[in-house]
Amino acid sequence: MSGRGGKATLIAVAVVLAWLVIGGVAGPYAGRLSEVATNDNAAFLPTDAEATRAQDLAGEFVDRQTIPALVVYERPSGITDADRQRVRADASRFAQIPGVVTPLPPPIPSDDGQALQVVVPVDDAEGEEIGTVVEQLREITGGDRDGLAVDVSGPAGLLADLIEVFSAIDGPLLLVTLVVVLVILLIVYRSPVLWIFPLLAAGMSYALASVFVYLLADADVVKLNGQAQGILTVLVFGAGTDYALLLIARYREELHRHDRPWDAMKTAWKGAAPAIIASGGTVIVSLLCLLLSSLNSNRALGPVAAIGIAATLLVMLTFLPALLVLGGRWAFWPRRPRADQADPRAEHGIWSRIAGFVARHARPIWLTTAVVLALLTLGLTQLGATTLGQSDLFTQRTDSVDGQEVISRHYPAGTGSPATIFTTEQTARQVARVAKNVPGVADVRPLTAGQQSGPPDPSAAPKVVDGRVQLEATLTDSPDSDSAERTIRELRVAVHHVPGADAVVGGFTAINVDTSDAAKRDQNVIIPVVLVVIAVILALLLRALLAPLLLIATVLLSFAATLGLCALLFRHVFDFPGVDSAFPLFAFVFLVALGIDYNIFLMSRVREESVKRGTRAGVLAGLAVTGGVITSAGIVLAATFSALAVLPLVVLVELGTAVAIGVLIDTIIVRSLLVPALAYDIGPKIWWPGRLSRANGEREARGAG
After folding, report:
1. Nearest to 250 by CA among 613, 633, 662, 542
2. Can you list the pairs that 452-457 forms with residues at least 24 positions away whose Cβ atoms lie under 8 Å?
3. pLDDT in tens, 107-132
């Protein structure tokens, strides 16, 4: 016996040492992910989108592709000669910044005389360094002075602010996530020792995922953006802690039945691993369904997050068990489990009482909870998915937002970020005339020879490239507004109808339009695929058809209720203007994939117990022994996704809030009451058409339960 125990210890030590070496190599990459991240929204468009075609054509009209920074100066009492001198001095310094494309166009005065605007074209090849260029622009202007307000806005200013937000991921977000997990683990385990094991394993999972994501992104195999990077952090720590809680709970049970930790871990691993693998597999496959997306941003998130879950599964099923074997019973101090053959349900008094309550009132419980969730879905009428405007992207004020508001007060709001129209030379005049008649278009001018940016020279001839002319349409509304998007749609309809024009409309607003359209298409394609995939996995795991269908129905109801509740919170509590067009799909993938996890944890144990006790008794036993750990897991996951709120970006705050609320609804209502009550009420038929559905002696089993 001692020989077997010594061999087991050596194996555990070897596994731990091997993982520590891997962690030492992979660890530094966790802090380097920002080096390979990109946040260029235009690059995420489908290749066949009209805005993408326009972007390709635009590259033929200029020596270098640029993204404009708009430096706007405002004095409500009127721009003075000293102000004009200051603007000219600033502009000469702007031209000396590396990455700025010269010559700069002259400052553009507003009609009311209260503002001046300098268009600073920044070389698009600068990539993430655009943020550095914008920072230098802001340093040169020096901010507000002597009553003259100065802001740096435009597409380059917005991108710089986004880059600054995402730079917080490597530090503050990771720190907040770690603290949240630590606090919850201390509360759950009430042990000064045990929390170390899941937290160390989660950290190892994140390091392993980071090295693979870094290498793949560096090789341009996957696209990593700040949004995917933030979700990777909370997903790995949240899901990893969930898997750890499940394994540790099962290990604690088996320590009551086995003298040696090694034997207890072998039995616990065999019991918990199938559910953990099925859970992780469901999330991985669901995330990989995002590869069907037409948007590169969605396709980027899928494999990045799937790599995170795969790394987490590997670590939690190898490194964590080895740590727990080495820790033995003392890891649970001061509540160390003894080999006393105690019934696992004895340690879960409150959940045994909940199980009894479910048994006595099964039908009223599932009917009531279903009605409550259905009522929450009524809030969906308040959801209104849209493309968030620039002023709506952030939860706090930014320089780019302030600048856009100044531009909107004194200029046609689309100044500096016009829509671009490419058409044949022969039809250019007709297309320009048709475009100018579209409501919401303030002016249409051709790009002239020698012009790189800024207002065109009316006396110069249009620039012709391969028989095409580029027209610039200035919009009356802010380029990121809903009204500007409507204008682009109407503009496209109008110019497409010009015979022989072969017109293509692009620009900043057109990118938003095409992104929104692609997001709607993705929802219609990906959501059904995810549901089919989950149904197949559940059918294989539970060896039944009815149970998987009912579980998916409950998760869909939970998802709709979550979105309904979130819609009310976003509109009436957080005062958000709406949700981004990509939000419903992201929320669906995470809520359904993660929500089904808890049903997998519950129903896999219910099936195991049903084989021994009968279905109804198995439902009660499964609920009693898994209730505490699944609730703890749900709270951990909800709390980790809530950590996204530290990033001042509306879309991530909304996603974190939705996942947190959805997970809590799944954990507390769906998994604790609705699913067990429904399964108990249906009885053995829940396993139809499997053998368990034809089990005999259900009445005796019910009495025994």
Report:
1. 633
2. 452/62, 452/63, 452/66, 452/101, 452/103, 452/121, 453/66, 453/68, 453/101, 453/104, 453/105, 453/119, 453/121, 454/104, 454/105, 454/106, 454/108, 454/119, 455/105, 455/108
3. 989 989 999 999 999 987 776 678 88
